[in-house]
Design goal:
Length: 396
């Protein structure tokens, strides 16, 4: 039995243990370290899970096949070699889902010519395909595809911590980690897609623009378009922002024109079916074969694509809600006088119109397509806010 009130809490209060713990927990240095630890554990856990349980998705099959086209032009040979490599790593259940999980997959599994016709929509990621081929002799093509999601994920996490540290906003990691996870960070790490890689490059470019290192940022933005051609939307949003906010326009104008020309050349060489055919395939009705697929433009189908994209985005994805939350947070920080200098606000404007522009240009609903904008907005807002959990608000 304890002396006095006979409780452990009473003893702790009398000896000052509670007071000492409270003071320690309120230390900025301690909370900064806890925030860094929390963020690092989240990133490392997701990457470890992706390494052990990667997502064998359809895009992985298509990217592996595209990387093999430089040595297998015959559809039958390409099909056989692609599935041989995938089969060496995937389990029976994963193979079944990839080959027979739905009618589209089954057709691609049974028809090599149809399978090869799909790759015209993947060849345009020339930078990503080149990186797969570069890593192939070292780790193999399938492992290279996985690593190009996992390694950029780790690098992005480390860069976010670097950015927070430079802005003296490390405690913001407590807020940033769940925002990024909700925005699809975890799924993008486990899936074989170029989205995590292009997000890393784009985050660094946004940071460099914040630091007024425009030329280096423009080089990265130019490179990003060859990882995902639709990242031209970010470049265009930044160009409009430069005009509206009085930045140096010429570097971003050159970047946009060069990236647009490069993307058009890559699409031409790769046999891309064109914007409308791709729109119809992705947003209206999937096609078993893209060979000679040139549907007539239809306002009805055009509207169907946008309606489907909007409904699925709101019902099944997180980015619309997070986007609304970030806009509200930006407004509240503005009212509190916490919006910082002109570059921060300008970049938030660019990322906001870029989010809308991404949907308007191609209304795919999935979170990963908007991560560049949503994730970067989250990053900029957290550094503007600089939350401090070690400072207690004054009592009224």
């Amino acid at each position: 039995m304890m002396a006095g009130d006979g409780t452990v809490m009473g003893w702790a209060l009398r000896t000052g243990i509670v007071r000492s713990f409270t003071q320690a927990a309120g230390s900025k240095r301690l909370l900064d370290r806890l925030a860094v630890t929390f963020f690092a554990v989240v990133c490392l856990t997701i990457s470890a899970y992706a390494l052990v349980r990667p997502d064998y998705n359809w895009d992985m099959v298509a990217y592996v096949a595209t990387a093999l086209e430089d040595r297998h032009s015959d559809p039958v040979e390409l099909h056989a070699e692609t599935w041989r490599l995938i089969s060496e790593r995937a389990s029976e259940s994963q193979l079944y889902a990839l080959q027979q999980g739905n009618t589209y997959n089954l057709n691609q599994w049974q028809n090599p010519a149809d399978f090869q016709s799909q790759l015209s929509m993947y060849r345009v990621k020339v930078g990503y395909i080149a990186m797969l081929r570069t890593l192939e002799p070292v780790v193999g093509l399938v492992n290279a595809a996985m690593l190009l999601s996992i390694l950029p994920s780790l690098a992005l996490g480390a860069f976010c911590l670097f950015w927070l540290a430079r802005e003296d906003a490390l405690q913001g990691a407590f807020v940033l980690a769940p925002l990024l996870v909700l925005a699809d960070y975890a799924h993008m790490t486990t899936a074989v897609v170029p989205d995590m890689l292009v997000s890393l490059v784009s985050f660094v470019a946004v940071y460099l623009l914040l630091r007024r290192r425009d030329l280096t940022a423009c080089l990265l933005l130019f490179a990003s378009v060859f990882l995902r051609p639709d990242n031209i939307i970010l470049v265009f949003a930044l160009l409009l922002t430069a005009i509206a906010f009085g930045w140096r326009v010429f570097p971003l104008l050159v970047t946009f024109v060069a990236a647009l020309a490069g993307g058009m050349i890559a699409a031409k060489v790769g046999g891309h079916p064109g914007w409308w055919a791709h729109f119809y395939f992705s947003c209206v009705q999937i096609q078993n074969s893209m060979a000679n697929f040139h549907p007539d433009f239809s306002l009805v189908d055009f509207a169907r694509g946008y309606i489907r994209g909007a409904v699925v985005a709101v019902m099944d994805n997180e980015w619309p809600a997070i986007f609304a939350l970030l806009l509200a947070g930006w407004a509240l920080l503005g009212r509190a006088g916490r919006t910082g200098g002109g570059r921060e606000n300008a970049l938030l404007f660019a990322l906001a119109i870029g989010t809308l522009g991404k949907f308007v240009s191609f209304p795919l609903p999935d979170d990963r397509f908007y991560f560049v904008f949503i994730g970067a907005m989250s990053m900029v807002l957290v550094t503007m806010w600089r939350p401090r959990f070690d400072i207690m608000p004054a009592r009224a």
